[in-house]
Design brief:
The chain is an alpha+beta fold and 290 residues long. Helices cover 15% and strands 36% of the residues. The protein has 2 domains: 91 residues, Immunoglobulin-like; 172 residues, Glucose Permease (Domain IIA) (Distorted Sandwich), CATH 2.70.70.10. Strands 9, 12, 14, 15, 16, 18, 20 and 21 form an 8-stranded antiparallel β-sheet that branches. Strands 4-3-6-7 form a 4-stranded antiparallel β-sheet, with no helix packed on it. It has a 3-stranded antiparallel β-sheet with strand order 1-2-5. The structure holds zinc ion (ZN).
């Protein structure tokens, strides 16, 4: 049994399985939950091509891929697998969620209604963030599963509508974990650092980690960043310290996940993709790490 199958078995509880339109044993395997904000890890025969939501999906040489469902993903979505036998269409029902409204008062007024002179800065910074999240690297760190980057009470959830100082703004896409300023943030999964910026206008100290094939984590409002762009991370490595920089009322970690520009819910990643035990080969590799 290969590692992926073992992972599938271990995670069987609560996992929605595909109802393939074609034959039962046609090579598509996946795990995860078809719910708004959810991520799906799949496997197809090597060399097969995958299309999801009309986007071409990166597939690793051994057939692994990851896709993500946005906050307002439609009621059904289609995954198309194309191999030597031609294209096969899989249609999935997506679970809808209802999102809370959260009022946040006491953030700096300049972060709710920014003065016109900072608009260029905001646009430049958004480009940096978009570019970091657009990286399509052949890494497969997402297969290792996800653990919490720190302990603490959850004070904000994915998807809620946010009203800052009485002004309705974009939904909140992160998982907020409250902790004192200076608390260590640890890598929730392996990856490579794509962006390390100490002071962005809205998000303050901001770190983006690439987990491969378009899947990334962002950590914001940090008081300190302990790694630099290009650094390779193992799960549990200290990467930053909690802060209250940018549009924040108090110290907390805001952890976000993206599949390219699609916003995902880190709470679902924790629930459906707990860390996988390293295989024998990986243990050897870990031992050999300098
Ligand atoms: Zn937040």
């Amino acid at each position: 049994m290969n590692r992926f199958r073992r992972l599938l078995c271990r995670l069987f509880a609560g996992v929605v399985l595909a109802a393939p339109a074609a034959g039962a044993d046609d090579g598509l395997e996946f795990q995860g939950v078809w719910r708004q904000g959810g991520m799906i890890i799949g496997r197809v025969a090597p060399m097969a091509r995958v299309t999801f939501d009309r986007k071409s999906v990166p597939v690793s040489p051994d057939g692994h891929f990851v896709v993500g469902l946005g906050r307002d993903a439609p009621a059904t979505m289609t995954l198309i697998v194309t191999d030597a036998m031609g294209p096969r269409h899989y249609r999935f029902d997506v679970e809808r969620r209802s999102y809370a409204v959260q009022r946040v008062d006491g953030v700096p007024e300049s972060t709710v209604t920014p003065p016109p002179e900072v608009m260029d800065r905001i646009r430049r910074e958004q480009e940096l963030v978009d570019r970091a999240r657009a990286v399509d690297s052949p890494r497969r760190d997402f297969l290792a599963g996800f653990s919490r980057p720190l302990d603490g009470p959850i004070t904000g959830v994915y998807g809620s509508l946010r009203i800052y100082n009485g002004v309705p703004k974009n939904p909140h896409f992160g998982l907020d974990i409250a902790a004192p300023t200076g608390t260590l943030v640890r890598a929730p999964a392996p990856g490579v650092v794509r962006l390390a910026q100490p002071d962005l206008y809205f998000s303050g100290g901001t770190l983006i980690v690439d987990h491969g094939q378009g899947l990334s984590s962002s950590f914001i409002h940090l008081s300190a960043i302990l790694v630099k762009e290009g650094d390779e991370l193992a799960r549990g490595d200290p990467i930053a310290r909690v802060g209250a920089t940018g549009r924040a009322t108090g110290p907390h970690l805001d952890w976000r996940m993206n599949w390219f520009d699609v916003r995902l819910d880190p709470a679902l990643a924790l629930q459906y993709f707990p860390p996988a035990p390293p295989s024998a080969g990986e243990r050897t590799a870990l031992r050999l790490r300098p």
